[in-house]
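Milestone 3.1: sequence recovery, worked example.
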């Protein structure tokens, strides 16, 4: 088959690669769409891959073209999105249903062959069947949607309260929508980009704040930091209200520090701070994935074409990654398609 193969740091080429074979309990998926995740960037450009050569990619959708022995619930022709985590199912965390915390996991697109290819083979349990009325490019965004919903679960979100979303990127936009679906009284999105804030309004945000021009003063019952930026994380401590629930979904790329006064906000307001990692719960892969498929199909979880910044054929994967040499110029998801 053809694949976008990473041979060395910065060296990704469309070339021949061994077609994966189905094994008992697995299915072969013909990839139709695959998104570039922020975690793929350092793997390609900054020596972040586990080994070479490797095929990356873990946000994908496609069609089942072959099933292995023992597969019971999928058929050839089914449309599926892929849950990329492959937990061991044996460790203490897995036995509690905390698959995201598995220490012995594998992962499609980083530890084993991923979706920047014509085909990928995954365990049946990792193939999320969805209604074929959902376009492939939307189904390839199930993974970031599931990440966002997992953040709500980690933050014990309940409807009827005011929520703040710091960061209007893909994860932030999905977090905003999930908060609305789950009954938030109001949802306010914070970002430094007017374009992202306009998108948030189109998709249902009650209020938006450009933090370059406005200093937020309101206090919120639920706060979700989705940008992974130091300034955004510090802002979360400022806008959290008394007894608030604060969740860090974003992952910082530099040292994070707080002044004693900023940190004291957590003490004085007695807000709870938690993290969120990946997108899984029991039964695997979890409600995060099945509800994403359901709410995309019924239209309550919405997609806007501006969420995709650029579309490339898989054969031009190298050009797609060149965009990220200037990451501030990338204004949304970059998606690869098989011709």
């Amino acid at each position: 088959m053809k694949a976008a193969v990473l041979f060395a740091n910065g060296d990704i080429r469309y070339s021949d690669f061994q077609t994966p074979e189905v094994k008992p309990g697995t299915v072969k998926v013909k990839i139709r769409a695959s998104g570039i995740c922020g975690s793929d960037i350092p793997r390609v450009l900054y020596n972040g891959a586990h080994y070479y050569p490797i095929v990356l990619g873990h946000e994908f959708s496609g069609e089942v073209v072959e099933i292995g022995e023992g597969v019971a619930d999928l058929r050839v022709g089914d449309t599926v999105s892929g849950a990329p985590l492959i937990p061991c199912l044996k460790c203490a965390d897995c036995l509690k249903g905390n698959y995201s915390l598995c220490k012995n996991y594998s992962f499609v697109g980083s530890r084993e062959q991923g979706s920047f290819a014509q085909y990928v083979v995954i365990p049946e349990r990792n193939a999320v069947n969805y209604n074929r009325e959902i376009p492939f490019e939307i189904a390839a965004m199930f993974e970031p949607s599931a990440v966002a919903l997992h953040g709500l679960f980690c933050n014990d979100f309940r409807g009827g309260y005011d929520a703040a979303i710091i960061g209007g990127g893909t994860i932030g936009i999905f977090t905003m929508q999930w908060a609305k679906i789950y009954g938030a009284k109001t949802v306010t999105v914070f970002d430094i980009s007017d374009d992202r804030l306009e998108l948030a309004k189109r998709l249902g945000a009650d209020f938006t704040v450009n933090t370059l021009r406005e200093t937020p003063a309101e206090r919120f019952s639920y706060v979700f930091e989705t940008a992974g930026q130091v300034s955004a994380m510090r802002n979360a401590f400022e806008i959290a209200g008394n007894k608030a629930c604060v969740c860090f979904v974003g992952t910082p790329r530099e040292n994070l520090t707080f002044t004693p006064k900023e940190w004291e906000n957590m003490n004085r307001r007695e807000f709870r701070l938690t993290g969120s990692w990946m997108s899984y719960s029991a039964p695997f892969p979890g409600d995060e994935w099945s509800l994403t498929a359901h709410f995309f199909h019924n239209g309550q979880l919405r997609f806007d074409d501006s969420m995709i910044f650029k579309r490339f054929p898989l054969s031009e994967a190298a050009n797609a990654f060149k965009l990220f040499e200037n990451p501030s110029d990338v204004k949304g998801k970059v998606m690869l398609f098989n011709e």
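The chain has a mean pLDDT of 96. The two ends are 13 Å apart (CA to CA).
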